[in-house]
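Sorry to interrupt, but I need a hand with the structure work. Can you supply me with one protein entry, sequence and fold together? No commentary is needed, just the two lines. Leave the record below and I will have a look.
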Amino acid sequence: MTFDDILARVLALLEREGRVSYRALKRRFDLDEDYLEDLKVEIIQAKKLAVDEDGAVLVWRGNTPSVAVDSAASVPLPLTYTPPHLAEKILTS
């Protein structure tokens, strides 16, 4: 198998499972330490599809937007958290 073949299989596994240990990847795909490091660089740094957890686990993040966009989207609009009596007072003043 080529590097691209293994990369595709690892990504499919990671997307399906959500989390996978580096030890499991080494065993499942018969990888040596250098090959595993190359996969980690490609998945974590180049493609930004996963994050490293404690140097032991690869955690899928997929094609999600950045945290800043997520947190901005979750900020409630003023009318959704302003009590109705205050909202009415603000709108009529």
